[in-house]
Amino acid sequence: MATKVSSKLPTQDDQSVTAGWLTSGYSTYQVQSFLGHGAFSSVAKCTRMDDMKTVAIKMMKRQGSYVEHAKLEVAALKKLKSLDPDECNLVRWYRSFVDRGHICLEFEHLDQSLFDLMNGRNFRPLHLNEIRLIVQQLACALGHLKAAGIIHADLKLENVMLVNHLQEPFRVKVIDFGLAQTVRSAQLGSYIQTRPYRSPEIILGCSYTEVIDMWSLGCLVAQLFLSTSLYPGSCEYDMIRYIMETQGQLPENILTFGAKTCFFFQGDNSSTSTFWKLKTPEQFQRETGIQPKETRLLKLTSLDNLLDIRIIDCEKVVDRLAEMSDVQMFVDMLKGMLQLDPARRITPHQVLEHHFTSMHHFINLYPGSSYVSSASHMMDVSWNKSPPSHSGKAACKPQRKSRSRTTKAIQPAGSNRSGGKRKVVDVVGHANTVSTAPASEPDTTRPCSVREHLARSILNDHTYARREKPRPSNSAETERPARPRRTRKRPVDEDVPPRKRTTKRCGKKSSAGPSTSG
Fold it and tell me: Can you tell me where the transmembrane regions are (predicted)?
């Protein structure tokens, strides 16, 4: 359990409890160390003396605005008390108490935050199979918060904790409900969400719902993939500028109803509808005195640029194809999370059903792929190690298709079913016709980007694709069970010679004898 971490050293106000004791009406706690500090609170690692259990206690000063924040957090935690924390991927809250002028909240002790994990690995990006586990669990958590009508409002790397990374790798829980609020109590113009994770509707001062948490999840997932913030604005103007340079113009509905739209945009009412134009950095600085800065380590002109970020360097072609497909589905899911129009943003349930999370896009298509088997194994191990829920069912487990052989991969080169051309369907369902004319042998030894590898794999005669059973060219030649031929039996008279059979040809009688009918 941690909070907004700025230092692991206790503040002056916390000196009274450093290496000391906390007391509640339930138990006595020995303070072992401080885990972190934030704007409103400090978190200490403590031992609960009645059962010697290690817990995390969040302490807030009982004065001024701290009391109001504490009340809001306790109200949200009480509303979530009936949920199974393990099933819902939410931190377990035990109780609250007051000691020596501090409002104390007792939580389960967790391992480390995702920020600590990334910092410990020098911010090297995570593997997609690892990101998939985190996405699935956080979508589960957001789904339960949505059902409870609660907005977390501060989802970020620091507020996602690993439970026990050594024993249960990448099993996570959401913490810190200090800014949480109900959807009904959401106030226009609230100052919530940490800036790099702040949604456009919050920046512009629009009304909002729990979908702002999905935007934060998209920024968090992109950070795990890139190892740097997607939109690291030093001010809200920079945030809007970065978002528009990457994803295009903001929807007119949030621009029209945003309380702070005129702070960043200038409107043109010459036409029937208002056209909003983003102010230039120089104009914004003249009007506000705030100097915009360029803080991006990675400038994207489109989210599709993420397809070219990572180098696919697998020895086996089947693994290259599987990973290429995985990157495409990841970017497709990310686009849904970062949808500019809040009404069209993907929901937690849709994230769980998305092909990236459920692995429907490659689980049946690439036999012999170690990439696919590793992804499936990690997801299975994660669920097998998860504590059983009290309800006896895992509501957030993505439903994967059975390993049937009904789905076809890309047709191998040389197939004549499309008249010398093959049809490839990409992740958004667009059909592209690619010629299968002989081409020069590509260099498959050097690493390549996703787009380059897509073109390469299409022209590769040794593409791993599921081959269909051979079909007869003429459907009439299909084998069918032989039907017995009906014959007419008649009595045989030994004294009467059998009549010669006659046939009709072109309407004329044959010379074999008189014709017979039937």
Answer: none
